[in-house]
Amino acid sequence: MPEQLLARVEACYQQAEDFFKRRFPRPEVSFRLRGQKAGVAHLDENKLRFNPQLYRENREDFLRQTVAHEVAHLIAHQLFGHTIQPHGEEWQLIMRGVYELPPNRCHSYEVQRRRVTRYLYRCACPEPHPFSSQRHALVARGRRYYCRRCRVTLVFTGEQHRG
Predict the structure, then answer these.
(1) Annotation-wise, does 82 bind a ligand?
(2) What string of DSSP letters covers the chain?
(3) Domain named SprT-like: which ranges (predicted)?
(4) Dist CA 29 CA 41 (whole Å)
(5) Is the pLDDT of residue 42 over 90?
(6) What region, left, alpha or beta, does residue 8 occupy, with left being phi > 0 and alpha being psi -120 to 50 degrees?
(7) Is residue 161 marked as binding?
(8) Is the pTM of this model over 0.90?
(9) How far is CA 65 from each of CA 25, 91, 92, 124, 138, rounded to the nearest angstrom?
(10) In this structure, what are the phi and psi dihedrals at residue 13, rounded to the nearest 5 degrees?
(11) Which of 51, 62, 71, 137 could bridge 66 with an S-S bond, Cβ 3.0-4.6 Å?
(12) What is the pLDDT of residues 66-98, one digit of tens each?
């Protein structure tokens, strides 16, 4: 776990405590998030998860904006409860008033799409049907799929496509 990220989480909590004149319980912080999201706040578990790849590629903005964004979710939840909107006025108040940052809902980081394997299946129609790894595994375990157009059972061609 990067020390800078943990230090930034702590700094965000201290800023909120100075602003609201009260203590907040510290969250569990994990670096186990993949995909397009930079960070996620689990409100009921008081937990933060961050994306290590997006952190490495966007360190400065990630520390300044993303960490504050996610901490603000936990602070808003602890102050105002379950009924508030995720990016509503309470969260925006914390972003602007406490952290003096724009209340941006989404990041604009470049996200690398994972290359996925598609398994090609055929029927009587001219175009093949690409299956995901998960669906292909279900076929291997005996599940059958039918073409919606020609109603013929789809059969694996033996071909794979990486895209």
Answers:
(1) no
(2) --HHHHHHHHHHHHHHHHHHTS--PPPEEE----SS-SEEEETTTTEEEE-HHHHHHTHHHIIIIIHHHHHHHHHHHHHH-TTS-TTSHHHHHIIIIIT-----SS-----PPPP-EEEEEE-SSSS-EEE-HHHHHHHHTT---B-TTT-PBPEEEEEEEE-
(3) 7-157
(4) 10
(5) yes
(6) alpha
(7) no
(8) no
(9) 21, 13, 13, 53, 42
(10) -65, -40
(11) 62
(12) 999 999 999 999 999 999 999 999 999 999 999
Is residue 17 part of the annotated active site? The answer reads no
User: Which domains does the chain possess?
Assistant: 3-98 (3.30.2010.10), 117-162 (no CATH)
Choosing from 3, 17, 60, 70, the catalytic residue is 70
Side chain identity at 122, as an amino acid letter? R
Amino acid identity for residue 84 in this structure:
I
Query: Quick check: 115 pLDDT over 90?
Result: no
Q: Which of 38, 106, 42 is nearest to 74 (CA)?
A: 42
State pLDDT tens for residues 22-32. 999 999 999 99
Amino acid at 140: A
